[in-house]
């Protein structure tokens, strides 16, 4: 197997809080290939942001990386010094944040803020950096950006600010772009624009796209990793996750997505509340919210079972000894569609 | 993954049955007991060692100051000229300056022998130019200084809370009008008001308290108003209003309890500044008048001879600094613990 | 509201405040116990009558009030009857130099030292350095400046004999100790203020973005943080000035500096009403003007306020 651009191996991160130790990420392993867009999906507290912040080296002071490696082009980022990480951040790996309204320095002009990484990493002169900043702003679609270089953040709308933040992230042509819920704080129409922008970028850079909304993933991602309680519970190509989901949590996520052909018009909600990572119960953390829980779930956490060479899911339902369950109607329909496509494909191939 | 598969083979087959829903319900733990805002604050305060130590020191100082009403080693105003200007003498202490010796023309001299103080008579902190016992005077002075500060803070509290509450709660034109008045008053330097007040009234505890209270309430009023404006928009207050609860009842039941945090913090900052102002006024000679002792008058007297009789200045100065530092550390600790803005 | 209108409004407030103060001081001056003259008991009734006529004290209060106000408008502050019967304006103008020099030096030293202390504290929050810096700021805030002044005098003048113990006759050298004594309070205030602001800034989203850009901690604090933390610092210049005024009374006295503060204390002790009133007014004018300048500066420096004003 060839070397991945980014290879996270068995990452474990914990936080020291007043109440005790919170194990926010428990044994996450992920790879990101060149030119690929990977979506990390999960509810708040599932560990998706913490995983990405570990990659950036932006964890808060009370966090400890207990175990694991993060290999970027083969070298471990966790072993790097602050100085070395500074050279990687913003240049090789950059990040877009959730809230564009507060992510920009209110007392610094946009031009300076966009030029900052260029001056820092590429050692551009002031004028060259400014020219480049202008080009970047045009690239992300800020109209008449020459004039706007001297404007301050409060003179831009939320969507424009997120474009500016994106321009900053793209300034040095990073290998990896981490987008941490870049559309959550925006209006729906603006969301679509930002997603469109990210879609255009996927040819030039690899993207990790963090979201709690499975809906936005379908258009953008090549692969999807679903996280729950600090673990990856299902990972696979986007078609595999959407049309052949194996984990009951993924089923829940898919069923809670509004679709146009919903007949009864009622949205499904996953019962219960997110797991308590402070004093986790033994067994599978999702078990208490899982209609399909087995007895084994109360005792053992399921390992990742392989579904296809690219598709894994951590549920005991995939164990040989597990009883076959009746899948929810909506999921069954998706699987059927998936099988038809599969057979369609093979049929086509057979023709060739 | 096949490895993982093999490692789970030891799990009994019987486990692979749909789970009994009761079993899992049992496993869902009840949520951690929720901690109220004030409990949370206390816990943070207790972690701040400097603040906790300061709190203990202040409790001890207040206790001693109150006790000094009934008990001081000697009468703080009793003059005994033959025993004037004695250095501290603590029995068993053999450090120059604390053993009855004082430096006269570069030589340590036993002042107690010179003054023919009978054996067994000790002045732990020495005596002043009139032979008054400095320890007793410091105890009485601390009491007076604390009394002035606490009274001034209390008046501050009453005026400031009332003004801030009315201004913030009424809002609209009343608020604008009251804020304009506040702005105009804020343009007058505190110092000037206090000095003018002291020129009109006879210097003493009452006039100092009034002068400090008249100038000190502005900050309290501002803080309370800002917080009231914020609270007014909260849903539970809106709910109470729509249910027809009277403004007075809302103020007592909802506003005051929610304002208490910032009021306590603000008061904790007011007290040391009142202590400072009293000491300052007495030091420049327009505060408390002799023979009554306050820490300020003691400093004023001590400063006149500090090169020859250093204890008369440094002992009251040390007590004053200890009180000030303790109050400021405690106030900082309280603010960090209870001010949600500082929470991170 | 445009920026211009805002300034006009502030000016109106300023005048209202000054009018209020001058009226109060006039009333007080007239109803104060004690005599305006030196050695009053030695004056005969005729002499007193003559003196009263000479200084206009025989006229009714209303008229004297108008005379007083028009005098103020012309810069006439009255006559100091305790200090050689000279005009107060002359008495004070000869003393304003040292006070201003000391005040500015102390403010500059205090703020710069405070900013450095506060920034370092915030950058290494909850570390040993932070505890040390915060503690020294609290001690600086807690020790009254007159005690600190005496301590400095004792250590650097009496014991070490490095610097003059008092007086204003040795050029810059004689300003060092009083400046230090005055600077401690603004330093402590600035340090505490900057630390709080800076911690907020360093925990902000844009500081995180700067970190994600690859900026170093030090540069984030100084390039992104300091500007944002300094803007609110302007607001405490007013209270700082008040603190310096208060401090100057005792510090000028302790170091025997011929400044306004020393004169003020002398005048208070000797019932020199005209001078007391004049210094009162002077301090009020100074404070009001500084508050106005702070408001204008705030508008000029913070782009959010500046542009909001300019656009409309």
From TrEMBL, chain A:
It is found in: Cell membrane. Its main location: membrane. It holds the Pfam family oligo_HPY. GO terms for molecular function: ATP binding; ATP hydrolysis activity. Keywords: ATP-binding, Cell membrane, Membrane, Nucleotide-binding, Transport. GO terms for cellular component: plasma membrane. InterPro entries: AAA+_ATPase, ABC_Ni/Peptide_Import, ABC_transporter-like_ATP-bd, Oligopep_ABC_C, P-loop_NTPase. The keyword GTP-binding does not apply. GO terms for biological process: peptide transport. It is a peripheral membrane protein. Residues 8-254 form the ABC transporter domain. Belongs to the ABC transporter superfamily. PANTHER family: DIPEPTIDE TRANSPORT ATP-BINDING PROTEIN DPPD, OLIGOPEPTIDE TRANSPORT ATP-BINDING PROTEIN APPD. NCBIfam families: oligo_HPY. This is ABC transporter ATP-binding protein. It comes from Paenibacillus roseus.
From TrEMBL, chain B:
CDD domains: TM_PBP2. Residues 142-331 form the ABC transmembrane type-1 domain. The keyword Protease does not apply. InterPro entries: BP-dependent_transpt_permease (IPR050366), MetI-like (IPR000515), MetI-like_sf (IPR035906), OppC_N (IPR025966). It is found in: Cell membrane. Its main location: membrane. It is a multi-pass membrane protein. One of its GO terms (cellular component) is plasma membrane. GO terms for biological process: peptide transport; protein transport; transmembrane transport. Gene3D superfamilies: MetI-like. It comes from the Bacteria. Belongs to the binding-protein-dependent transport system permease family. OppBC subfamily. This is ABC transporter permease.
């Amino acid at each position: 197997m060839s070397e991945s651009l980014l290879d996270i191996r068995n990452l474990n991160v914990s936080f020291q809080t007043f109440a005790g130790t919170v194990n926010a990420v428990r044994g996450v392993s992920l790879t990101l290939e060149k030119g690929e867009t990977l979506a990390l999906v999960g509810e708040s507290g599932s560990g998706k942001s913490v995983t990405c912040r570990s990659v950036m080296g932006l964890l808060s002071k009370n966090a400890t990386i207990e175990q694991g490696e993060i290999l970027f082009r083969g070298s471990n980022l966790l072993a790097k010094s602050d100085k070395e990480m500074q050279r990687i951040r913003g240049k090789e790996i950059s990040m877009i944040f959730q809230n564009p309204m507060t992510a920009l320095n209110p007392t610094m002009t946009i031009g300076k803020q966009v030029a900052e990484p260029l001056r820092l990493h590429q050692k551009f002169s002031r004028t060259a950096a400014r020219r480049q900043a202008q080009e970047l702003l045009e690239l992300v679609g800020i109209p008449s950006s020459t004039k706007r270089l001297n404007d301050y953040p409060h003179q831009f709308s939320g969507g424009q600010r997120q474009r500016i933040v994106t321009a900053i992230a793209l300034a040095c042509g990073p290998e990896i772009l981490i987008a941490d819920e870049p559309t959550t704080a925006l209006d729906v129409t603006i969301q679509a624009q930002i997603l469109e922008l990210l879609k255009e970028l996927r040819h030039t850079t690899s993207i990790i796209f963090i979201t709690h909304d499975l809906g936005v993933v379908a258009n953008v991602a090549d692969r999807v990793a679903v996280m729950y309680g600090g673990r990856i519970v299902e990972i696979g190509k986007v078609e595999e996750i959407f049309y052949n989901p194996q984990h009951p949590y993924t089923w829940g996520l898919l069923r809670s997505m509004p679709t146009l052909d919903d007949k009864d018009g009622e949205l499904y909600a996953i019962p219960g509340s997110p797991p308590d990572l402070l004093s986790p119960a033994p067994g599978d953390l999702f078990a208490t919210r899982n209609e399909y829980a087995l007895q084994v779930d109360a005792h053992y956490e399921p390992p990742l079972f392989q579904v296809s060479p690219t598709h894994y899911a951590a549920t005991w339902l995939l164990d040989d000894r597990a009883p076959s369950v009746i899948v929810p109607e909506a999921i069954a329909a998706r699987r059927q569609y998936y099988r038809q496509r599969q057979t369609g494909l093979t049929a086509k191939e057979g023709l060739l | 993954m096949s490895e993982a598969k093999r490692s789970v083979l030891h799990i009994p087959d019987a486990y692979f049955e749909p789970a009994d829903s009761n079993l899992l319900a049992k496993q869902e733990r009840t949520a951690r007991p929720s901690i109220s805002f004030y409990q949370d604050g206390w816990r943070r305060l207790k972690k701040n060692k400097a603040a906790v130590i300061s709190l203990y020191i202040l409790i001890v100082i207040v206790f001693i100051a109150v006790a000094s009403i009934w008990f001081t080693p000697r009468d703080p105003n009793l003059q005994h000229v033959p025993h004037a200007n004695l250095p501290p003498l603590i029995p068993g202490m053999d450090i120059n300056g604390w053993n009855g010796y004082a430096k006269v023309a570069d030589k340590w001299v036993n002042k107690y022998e010179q003054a023919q103080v009978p054996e067994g008579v000790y002045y732990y902190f020495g005596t002043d130019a009139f032979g008054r016992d400095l320890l007793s005077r410091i105890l009485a002075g601390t009491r007076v200084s604390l009394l002035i500060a606490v009274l001034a803070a209390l008046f501050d509290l009453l005026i400031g809370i009332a003004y801030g509450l009315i201004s913030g709660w009424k809002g609209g034109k009343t608020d604008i009008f009251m804020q304009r008045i506040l702005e105009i008053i804020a343009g007058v330097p505190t110092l000037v008001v206090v000095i003018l007040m002291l020129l009109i009234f006879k210097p003493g505890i009452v006039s100092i308290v009034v002068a400090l209270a008249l100038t000190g309430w502005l900050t309290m009023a501002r803080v309370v108003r800002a917080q009231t404006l914020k609270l007014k928009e909260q849903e539970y207050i809106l709910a109470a209003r729509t249910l027809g609860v009277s403004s007075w009842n809302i103020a007592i039941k909802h506003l005051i309890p929610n304002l208490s945090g910032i009021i306590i913090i603000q008061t904790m900052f007011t007290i040391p500044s009142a202590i400072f102002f009293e000491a300052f006024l007495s030091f420049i000679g327009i505060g408390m008048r002799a023979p009554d002792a306050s820490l300020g008058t003691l400093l004023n007297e001590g400063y006149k001879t500090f090169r020859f009789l250093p204890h008369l200045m440094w002992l009251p100065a040390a007590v004053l600094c200890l009180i000030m530092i303790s109050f400021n550390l405690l106030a900082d600790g309280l603010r960090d613990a209870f001010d949600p803005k500082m929470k991170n | 509201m445009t920026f211009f209108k805002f300034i006009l409004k502030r000016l109106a407030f300023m005048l209202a405040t000054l009018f209020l103060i001058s009226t109060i001081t006039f009333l007080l001056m007239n109803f104060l116990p004690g005599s305006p003259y030196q050695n009053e008991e030695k004056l005969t009734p005729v002499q007193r009558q003559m003196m009263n006529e000479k200084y206009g004290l025989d006229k009714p209060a209303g008229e004297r009030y108008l005379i007083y106000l028009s005098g103020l408008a012309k810069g006439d502050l009255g006559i100091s009857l305790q200090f050689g019967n000279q005009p107060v304006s002359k008495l004070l103008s000869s003393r304003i130099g040292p006070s201003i020099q000391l005040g500015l030096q102390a403010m500059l030293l205090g703020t710069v030292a405070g900013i450095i202390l506060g920034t370092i504290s915030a950058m290494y929050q909850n570390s040993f350095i932070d505890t040390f810096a915060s503690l020294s700021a609290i001690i600086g805030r807690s020790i009254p400046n007159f005690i600190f002044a005496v301590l400095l005098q004792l250590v650097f003048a009496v014991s070490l004999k490095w610097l003059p113990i008092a007086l204003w006759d040795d050029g810059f050298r004689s300003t060092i100790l009083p400046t230090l004594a005055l600077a401690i309070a603004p330093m402590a205030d600035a340090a505490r203020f900057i630390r709080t602001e800076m911690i907020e800034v360093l925990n902000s989203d844009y500081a995180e973005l700067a970190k994600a850009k690859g900026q170093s901690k030090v540069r984030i604090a100084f390039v992104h943080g300091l500007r944002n933390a300094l803007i609110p610092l302007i607001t405490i210049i007013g209270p700082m000035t008040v603190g310096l005024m208060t401090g100057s009374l005792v510090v000028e006295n302790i170091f025997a500096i011929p400044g306004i503060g020393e004169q003020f204390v002398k005048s208070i002790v000797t019932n020199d009403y005209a001078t007391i009133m004049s210094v009162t007014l002077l301090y009020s004018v100074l404070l009001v003007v500084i508050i106005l300048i702070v408001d204008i500066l705030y508008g000029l420096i913070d782009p959010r306020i500046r542009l909001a004003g300019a656009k409309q």
